[in-house]
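Lab notes, practical 5.
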Amino acid sequence: MKEVKAYVRMTIVHKVIDALKRKGYCCMTVLDVSGIGQFVDKRNWKYSMEYIEKMSKMAKIELVCRDDVADEVVKIIQEYACTHQRGDGIIFVSSVDRAVKIRTGEEGEEIVQHK
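Output from the prediction step:
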């Protein structure tokens, strides 16, 4: 199994989510986050007094999928999150060793979403 984490522009996250859903990926977590980095979105930043840094509002999309569809998930996110501008975001793909349903105790790849 793979965990895909993508940090994308807040202004475009709805396009990414819609594209993933259209392709059959319905189960994901979407978080409102702030990013501090080299390529802050100049159109959508604020100044943080806590960190004395410019921060961009970003969305973090997290989903777990089978190994064989991880590349497709990455391609969908990249296609719909790309504006060809600095600060478009980044995608991370990590291995997931174990998944357990809290309610049933069921384990394994079968419990993650399938297309």
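Observations recorded by the TA: The longest strand covers residues 53-65. The mean pLDDT is 86.
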